[in-house]
Amino acid sequence: MTHFTPVSAFLGGCLIGLAAVLLMAMNGRIAGISGIFQGAIDGTRGDRGWRWLFVGGLVLGAWLSISMTGAGFSLRLDYPPALVIAAGLVVGFGTRLGSGCTSGHGVCGIARLSLRSVMATLMFMLTGFITVFFMRHLVGVAG
Amino acid sequence: MKRALAQDSMALLAGALFGAGLAVSQMINPRKVQAFLDLAGDWDPSLALTMAGALLVTSVGYRLVLKRPRSLLGEAFRLPSQQLIDSRLLLGAALFGIGWGLGGYCPGPAIAALALGNLEPWLFLGAMLIGGLLAGRLPAANP
């Protein structure tokens, strides 16, 4: 169980938005993380550098934030690793097939009023709700 | 050369801001994500405010930025041109949502969560990489 944290949640969201605007304003790129990550792995040679820097920045920014203010939560250490691995496989497959994730479709796409992104976001929210309902209330697995 | 350095710096900075936002909002806490998706349990709506903050800033920021012919560092804006809402998009998004609910991670937060030092994000990302490579072997969507 977690607690409602409206202020930090909203401020964190604003930082995410700021990052997305910065990347577009300066580099002309969408801040879609599944795509940036995929391209860092199998993109063309000259197009990989900035992707790795962005990915490294994600870790660095999170680390700085945690160092300054603490994470604010305890680590989840009791969740079945098989479920984490299955989740990763499905997320990797699905985000490539559907050309985006929470950042690319949910933030950048909706901000551009892309109907594709609106539809994708509605779809992944829906299946996310259903999956958690199934796992927590029917199967009885909770982290 | 100078421009490439500036763009690389901006990619790192945007990544760091994004990662800080993911940490501050607790998107990197898989329990927080699952509690947000748990409408039938102890629902924690915090992350809806994260989405709202990110969308607010990105919508306004994109509107201002995309009025310009090029990015501030002289790059063309690379915006997705695909408009079609096809089964690939919807199936991909549906699978992504299932994995998101199952693990409590989407791609950005899984990368940023590497800053926490526990094993889970590594397992998730390794599997995500494989899932993405598998999806990349599917026949191309558009001739």
Which terms summarize this structure?
heterodimer, A: 143 residues, globular, B: 143 residues, mainly alpha
- Low-pLDDT regions of chain A: none
Tally of alpha and pi helices of chain A = 6
What's the shape of chain B? globular
Major sheet attributes of chain B:
none
Largest interface: A-B, 112 and 114 residues
- Beta-strand content bin of chain A: under 5%
Radius of gyration of chain B, in Å, reads 18 Å
Structural class by sheet pairing and helices of chain A? mainly alpha
The tally of beta strands of chain B, per DSSP, is 0
By DSSP, the count of extended strands of chain A is 0
Please give the alpha-carbon distance between the first and last residues of chain A.
9 Å
How far from one another are the termini of chain B?
Answer: 36 Å
What's the SSE pattern of chain A? HHHHHH
Q: How would you sum up the major sheet of chain A?
A: none
The domain count of chain B comes to: 1
What can you tell me about this protein's structure?
The complex is a heterodimer of chains A (143) and B (143). Chain A has 143 residues and is mainly α. Chain A has six helices and no strands. Chain A is globular. Chain B is mainly α and 143 residues long. Chain B has one domain. Chain B contains six helices and no strands. Chain B starts with a helix and ends in a 7-residue tail after the last helix. At the A-B interface, helix 1, helix 2, helix 3, helix 4 and helix 5 of A face helix 1, helix 2, helix 3, helix 4 and helix 5 of B.
